[in-house]
Design brief:
Number of domains: 2
Helix content: 55-70%
Mean pLDDT: 84
Strand order of the largest sheet: 2-3-1-4
Strand content: 5-15%
Low-confidence stretches: 79-86
Structural class: alpha+beta
Number of helices: 11
Oligomer: single chain
Length: 243
C-alpha cells in the first residue's frame, strides 16, 4: 500500500537523505520518496505502519510526521482490502499442512485414533514453528520481547524458547514421557498466552513472532487462538493419559 505524509522540519537535501534512510529502516516500509513539496513523503508499505512507529524512526528532536488529508481514508480502504484471511494466509496454510500430514500418518497405523492424531499435530506444530524462529533467532528474540512477559524480563528466554519448541517436537515424535511432555507444553503455552492477552487488551500494534521474522504477521486474536489451541490439546492429552 502507498501512503503520503507531511514532515515538519525538512529544510535541506541532507534532511531528505537522513529521513529516507531512517524510514527505510522501519519494518514493512518497502520504499520511501521524500521531497520539499507537500506531500513531502510517499511510502510504499507492506502493511499499515502506525504513525508513532514512523515518528520514532525519524526522531522527535527536529522532525514531526503527520498524515495528509486523504491519509485516513486511504488507510481504511486499503486495510479493508487486506483482510485478516489474507494477512494470515501463511499461518492458515501451515496449520492445514500440519493437520493434513497428521491425518495421512494415521493411514499407516489406522488403529491409533484421535490421540495419535493430536500427538502428530503437536509434533508438526512445534517442528515447523521452531524452524521459522531459528532461521533468525536473534530477530525473533528481539520481537518476542515486545509482548512476552518472560522474555521482557529475561531477554535470554527469547533465545531459549525456539529450542524448547524443537525439543517438544522431538518428544512428541518419539512419544517420550507423554505426561511430562504434555504438562510442560501446557505450562509453556499458558505462560506464552499471557503476554498475547495483555497486548491484545492494550490494543498494541506489534508484530507477532510466532513464525519468526520471515513471515510478518500482526499480533491479533489469531495468535491467541493458536496458543489456546495448543493449551487445549495438551490439556486433553494430559487428561487422557491420566484417566
Amino acid at each position: 500500500m502507498k501512503q503520503t505524509y507531511n514532515i515538519a522540519g525538512i529544510t535541506c537535501s541532507s534532511c531528505i537523505t537522513r529521513l529516507t534512510t531512517r524510514l527505510l529502516s522501519v519494518n514493512d516500509v518497502l520504499s520511501a520518496e521524500l521531497q520539499f513539496a507537500s506531500p513531502q513523503a510517499t511510502l510504499l508499505l507492506h502493511t499499515h505502519v502506525p504513525l508513532a512507529t514512523l515518528q520514532q524512526a525519524i526522531g522527535s528532536d527536529k522532525y514531526t510526521i503527520t498524515p495528509t488529508t486523504n491519509h485516513v481514508a486511504d488507510v481504511a480502504a486499503q486495510s479493508a482490502s487486506t483482510s485478516t484471511s489474507v494477512s494470515y494466509y501463511p499461518i492458515y496454510l501451515i496449520f492445514a499442512y500440519i493437520a493434513g500430514a497428521s491425518i495421512l500418518v494415521l493411514f499407516a497405523a489406522p488403529d491409533s485414533g484421535f490421540m495419535a492424531w493430536m500427538n502428530n499435530f503437536m509434533a508438526g506444530f512445534f517442528l515447523v514453528f521452531s524452524f521459522f524462529k531459528l532461521l533468525n533467532i536473534s530477530a525473533f528474540a528481539e520481537g518476542y520481547r515486545t509482548y512476552d512477559v518472560v522474555a521482557r524480563r529475561f531477554p535470554a528466554y527469547g533465545y531459549v524458547y525456539p529450542l524448547l519448541e524443537l525439543l517438544l517436537a522431538i518428544a512428541y515424535l518419539l512419544r517420550l514421557q507423554p505426561l511430562l511432555t504434555n504438562a510442560f507444553t501446557l505450562i509453556l503455552m499458558s505462560v506464552s498466552i499471557v503476554g498475547v492477552v495483555k497486548s491484545l487488551m492494550r490494543k498494541s500494534a506489534i508484530q507477532c513472532a510466532c513464525l519468526g521474522t520471515i513471515i510478518k504477521l500482526p499480533l491479533s486474536t489469531v495468535t491467541f487462538a493458536e496458543d489456546a489451541l495448543m493449551i487445549l490439546m495438551s490439556l486433553i492429552m494430559l487428561l487422557m493419559h491420566l484417566l
